[in-house]
Amino acid sequence: MSRFVRGAFVVTIVLSAMAGNAAHMAYRDYQDTLQRRYSLVRDMSKVVEEHVHRAIRGAAISLDQTAGMVAEAGGIDAIRDMDHWMRLREAAAHVDGGETIWIFDAEGRSVMESLSYPGRSADVADRDYFRASRESDRLFIGPAVIGRTAEKRMIFTISRPLRDQDGTFIGVVAAGISVDYLTDFYDLLGFDYNPLIGVYRPNGDVVARRPNMREMVGRSVADGLLFKTKLKEAPEGLYISPSVLDGTSRIAAYRTMRDYGLIVLTGIDEAEAFAEWRTRSAYMAAEALLASLVILLTMGWGLRYLDRERRTQIQLTEARASAEQAGAERDQVTRLAAELKRAKEVAESANRGKGEFLAGLSHELRTPLNAVIGFSDLIAREAEGPVGTPVYKRFALNVRDSGQHLLELINEILDHAQAEAGCLKIEETTVDLDAAATFAVRMLTPRAERAGVTLAVSVAPSVRSLRADERRLRQILLNLIANAVKYTPSGGSVTVTAGMEAGALEIRVTDTGLGIPAEDIDRVMEPFGRADTAANRRIEGTGLGLPLTRRLVELHGGTLALRSTLGVGTTVTARLPGARVLPPNIPAAPPPAAERRAPMRILVVDDDPSIREGAAMLLQSWGHRVTLAANANEALVVLSGTEPLDLLFSDVVMPPGMPGTELAKHARRLRPGLPILLTSGFAAHAVGAGDDVAADIAMVAKPYASADLKRHLDRIAAERHPSDTPFAPSSTAPAATIMDAPMTESTPPASSSVRKPRLLIAEDLDMNRELLAAIFRSSGYSLDLVADGRAAVEALRAADYDLVLMDVHMPGMDGLEATRIIRAMPSPRGRVPILALTAGNMPEEIDDCRRAGMDGHIGKPYDRERLLRETAKAMAGAHAPGA
């Protein structure tokens, strides 16, 4: 490219940039000017509207007073005296800009006017205002007209009808108002421009206008942009348009007058409004041109100078290229370093989240495993005497409850994994929402009662029936209610409501619990995310419940929203499409009495004798025949035999031996088509017995309400055909029986004459306290048990102990805070050995224990030998010389 071409190209770019900048500045100045002019005409319209409204309002009041005078006198013929004329004059004096007030009879003939007595004669039967007032009771505001007087003054008329007590039309009272009153007022406003001021009737007729009012009498603006378009879009606004009356383009503002429907228009000539802007733009253009000339001269000189330096530049080209390459490489290195830093931060954040989840999961799994392993060890060693004593039954129940807690955790983790992999599916059926909500509340009532929390449920009848996956719907309700109970302190409440809102089904779970900080609301909806508050950290959880629930709601085409106030409570709303709600079912005619009384042959299986006998009595009171089995093996004997059966009613959890879910599978094999109804008191079973069990197996919560159980039985009975025979076995199977060993209460070992080491154990879980008590009492220790850190501190203040076993995570005051308070006590109580009991095994958690002043830690689940060894070691170290 030649030097001339390069120079011309550069000059073109510079001049284009300057011209573009000048145009941009002129455009911005234009917009600013336009907005100021819009603001001016808008303010003008408000002032004019208020003035016109006040004038018409004053005239309307005077006309109402005149009508009252006529009514008071008893009719038009009774007011033709001087006294009534004086009153008419007084009313006319209060009309701003008023010319006169006329009273006309029903034929349009004048009766009285305010200017003279007895008044001039006039006939207005053909006038618009007379005809309008005769046909309507509304106030009529007429267009501007030229008066019939010698002065030919322009007026507009305001009129209203006169009626007697029977409502019969007897005349019209009208006030003539001078248009000059309005135009003279506009001249007093002192506007910088010669504005357009217009007042128009709703049909476009001119009532008042400046300038050139006399030329506008009898004209209309109905064909203009204002009436054709703008008023249809909005009752007030701004626009630029030529006038249909004089052709002048104006910046205008319009308003619809309240009460009377008149249109007020104010505007200023567009040419006059932008005159200053055009002057400024001309100056800017001149400045830009002058600057362009200066730049051209400068660049001409620069090109000559550059020509002289061309050879030097050629020599420096390679050096510059090398420097640029080095700079590019440096920029690339900097960019890569920044990307690596961001990737490192993302990885560290993911690692932290994974670490927090693993720490929480470790604690969640170790806590129930502690009871499972500990109590199993006590049973295996016969620590409380021979197996069969009643205390072992309590140990077995603790093992069972801990196992169920583990099952809930594992199911939650597996469901989350399925959701992440996109493998979660729903199987839609017709679901009774009220029954599902009642089921969930009843399932969680024991947990809520232990926590001192009140549960309530309310489902609108109109949304009771819907299309959904019943198992997943129960899981949604159980997750939300269980979460609310977990984070609600004693004395609080949890309320479940369901109803239609804005065309969608809304299920709300509201609690009066701890609440969630605003900055943590998005976090708790993500997997493994939990609110980062001291109160929430003391409550166990994996952080999977809400994300899993949201995924289940989304599978139904809905959304999950959370609203919370810290210290007040939380509301979680599951919003499902309204199309899922089915019309309320019309109750079918009740079956004949003979069919309702037809008994069924029911096999009841439950390991708890009281529940088993209670269920039998209830079913027998309804006329059914009942066969009882204490466990799955006894039930298999019946199922393998020839006894006819119509229903298998079994508990899910029956330790030891086969659970109810496994029994259901065998029942399907032995008695094909036999209806099965399962019952459980554990929330993990409430959403179904498991993915490997048929979906048509129903579940009833324990303790079950008689109405709920009867509803299931009625459904099963209704599905039976009168000609059906009981379900017979398809094959026989060898019978086996597993009987529970008898259990008896044990007594603590007798005290010896030697003083036993005295231990203080602080543990919030009842089963863990019982486990530790069983381990240490059988090993020769004296124990005091407390349920939280505050009680441990009070116990240390009241008595001396050889060792304190302190759980780290406890409600109220946790173990770390309690240890710090104990260490602040005077010796020797302040120096008592303290061992941490914790399900966490992360290095950070162990360091927290040591910083709080603990002498060591014992991880959960407990190993009896290590527990006793660490306890003896800690006490020996405390009593060693110099300790």
Automatic annotation (TrEMBL):
<feature type="signal peptide">
    <location>
        <begin position="1"/>
        <end position="19"/>
    </location>
</feature>
<feature type="transmembrane region" description="Helical">
    <location>
        <begin position="282"/>
        <end position="303"/>
    </location>
</feature>
<keyword id="KW-0902">Two-component regulatory system</keyword>
<feature type="modified residue" description="4-aspartylphosphate">
    <location>
        <position position="651"/>
    </location>
</feature>
<keyword id="KW-1133">Transmembrane helix</keyword>
<dbReference type="GO" id="GO:0000155">
    <property type="term" value="F:phosphorelay sensor kinase activity"/>
</dbReference>
<dbReference type="Pfam" id="PF22588">
    <property type="entry name" value="dCache_1_like"/>
</dbReference>
<keyword id="KW-0418">Kinase</keyword>
<keyword id="KW-0175">Coiled coil</keyword>
<dbReference type="InterPro" id="IPR036097">
    <property type="entry name" value="HisK_dim/P_sf"/>
</dbReference>
<keyword id="KW-0812">Transmembrane</keyword>
<feature type="domain" description="Response regulatory">
    <location>
        <begin position="758"/>
        <end position="875"/>
    </location>
</feature>
<feature type="modified residue" description="4-aspartylphosphate">
    <location>
        <position position="807"/>
    </location>
</feature>
<feature type="coiled-coil region">
    <location>
        <begin position="323"/>
        <end position="350"/>
    </location>
</feature>
<dbReference type="InterPro" id="IPR011006">
    <property type="entry name" value="CheY-like_superfamily"/>
</dbReference>
<keyword id="KW-1003">Cell membrane</keyword>
<dbReference type="Pfam" id="PF00512">
    <property type="entry name" value="HisKA"/>
</dbReference>
<dbReference type="Pfam" id="PF02518">
    <property type="entry name" value="HATPase_c"/>
</dbReference>
<keyword id="KW-0472">Membrane</keyword>
<feature type="domain" description="Histidine kinase">
    <location>
        <begin position="360"/>
        <end position="580"/>
    </location>
</feature>
<keyword id="KW-0547">Nucleotide-binding</keyword>
<dbReference type="InterPro" id="IPR003661">
    <property type="entry name" value="HisK_dim/P_dom"/>
</dbReference>
<dbReference type="InterPro" id="IPR029151">
    <property type="entry name" value="Sensor-like_sf"/>
</dbReference>
<keyword id="KW-0808">Transferase</keyword>
<dbReference type="GO" id="GO:0005886">
    <property type="term" value="C:plasma membrane"/>
</dbReference>
<dbReference type="InterPro" id="IPR004358">
    <property type="entry name" value="Sig_transdc_His_kin-like_C"/>
</dbReference>
<dbReference type="InterPro" id="IPR005467">
    <property type="entry name" value="His_kinase_dom"/>
</dbReference>
<keyword id="KW-0597">Phosphoprotein</keyword>
<dbReference type="InterPro" id="IPR003594">
    <property type="entry name" value="HATPase_dom"/>
</dbReference>
<dbReference type="Pfam" id="PF00072">
    <property type="entry name" value="Response_reg"/>
</dbReference>
<dbReference type="GO" id="GO:0005524">
    <property type="term" value="F:ATP binding"/>
</dbReference>
<dbReference type="InterPro" id="IPR036890">
    <property type="entry name" value="HATPase_C_sf"/>
</dbReference>
<keyword id="KW-0067">ATP-binding</keyword>
<dbReference type="InterPro" id="IPR054327">
    <property type="entry name" value="His-kinase-like_sensor"/>
</dbReference>
<dbReference type="InterPro" id="IPR001789">
    <property type="entry name" value="Sig_transdc_resp-reg_receiver"/>
</dbReference>
<keyword id="KW-0732">Signal</keyword>
<feature type="domain" description="Response regulatory">
    <location>
        <begin position="601"/>
        <end position="717"/>
    </location>
</feature>
<protein>
    <recommendedName>
        <fullName>histidine kinase</fullName>
        <ecNumber>2.7.13.3</ecNumber>
    </recommendedName>
</protein>
